[in-house]
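user: can you give me the structure for this one chain? tokens are fine.
assistant: on it. calling the predictor now.
[tool input]
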Amino acid sequence: MSPKQKLEQAIYRALPDMPPNQKKVAEFFLENRTLVALLSIQDIAQQARVSKASVVRFAQLIGYTGFKELKEEFSSSLIDQLSPTEKYKVATSEQENRIDSVTLVAQNVITNIQETLQYIDKNKFTQAVESIIQAKNIYCLGLELSAALSQLMTFLLCLYHYPAHHMSLDYLRFKEQVAHMNADDLLIAFSFSPYSRETVEAIALAKQKGLSSIAFTDKKIAPIRNHATYTFQIKTDNLMFSNSVGAITVLINAIITELNFRDRERTLKALENIEDNIKDERFFIVP
């Protein structure tokens, strides 16, 4: 049962025994489900024509410590359904009471990371890392924000001497590039809502050709899950429209770290090369 359904059931159970003012608040909640997530306690009190204390007592009657806890649970159940404009209104609906932006964003990223850790299947993680070690070529792809993540993954893999390549659409579509790949190649795709058809279709073709693939995505219903060999679900909730990348970069770093621990000979050679390069004053400034 979703938080929204639990809330509605709690209201209906308590409704017959509620005092008149709390009934007004209950009716307002039931008739304005989406609007509630956008309003402050003062706004709800004014529109329901009751006092702020009545809104607090209503929350307590249905099992919450107060209005803040009720709103947080109700808002979280609706946030995925909101448009970018509505998400912005939620984030700014209590502007005078909000904490500073740095703390707010940091707390959001921490929550995303904690929830992502619950999604990770350690056996699949190990198998995905092994597929990177065994691949003849590794192709990373994604569009828009996912293109930047693809480039980051490509850079880190190349840094440690893996045969990684970033795929772009400069000359050929993704599907056209996949058509030229071999069975011992590997694709790593980044696909987050709103999902790019180009990326999903490329991984679908890879599956048809018998190529292995790793997908980073955000939801159980993400279309790329039907085609990827290994899928990592990552929480990317953000206060605004774009996906938060904090938890994504944690998982990328975890994969690179695991590669370093398991593929020691390659890692040592890469580190020796890195150490030699950073001493070259033609490219780096040594303090």
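assistant: here you go. The chain has two domains: 3-98, 123-278. Strands lie at 138-141, 164-166, 186-191, 212-217, 230-233.
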